[in-house]
Fold this sequence. Notes:
This protein is an alpha/beta fold. It has one domain. The protein has a 4-stranded mixed β-sheet, with helices on one face. Helix 1 links the parallel strand 1 and strand 2. The longest helix is centred in the C-terminal third of the chain and has 17 residues. The chain is elongated and about 60 Å long. The model has no long low-confidence stretch (mean pLDDT 89).
Amino acid sequence: MKEESRRLQAVFAVSDLSAVGVVMECQRRGLKVPKDIAIAGFGNFEVGAWSHPRITTVDVECYEIGRRAALRLRASILGGSDAPVSAIELTRIRVVERESA
Length: 101
C-alpha cells in the first residue's frame, strides 16, 4: 500500500475548541484544511465560527438537554415519575457545514 493512501483524511474532535487546536497544528505542519485534511468539531461553540478556516461542527440542543435532565431529576426527587433518572432520551442534532470539511 502506498504511503499516500494511508494518510489521515479527517479528524472529528471531541469539541470545537479541540478542533481549533487540530487546525492550528495542521497549519504548523504545513497542511491545508480542508484540502489536505478535513476537520470537524462538536458543540457549535463561537470559537469554531471565528477560527480560520471556520470549523464544521455538530450542533446539539444543549439547553433542551439540560431542561430535560432537570425535569427528570426533579420528578425523581419528588417521586412523580417511574422513569429512571438514567433513562435515554433522544434530541435533535444538526451538522453545521463550514469551511474545514
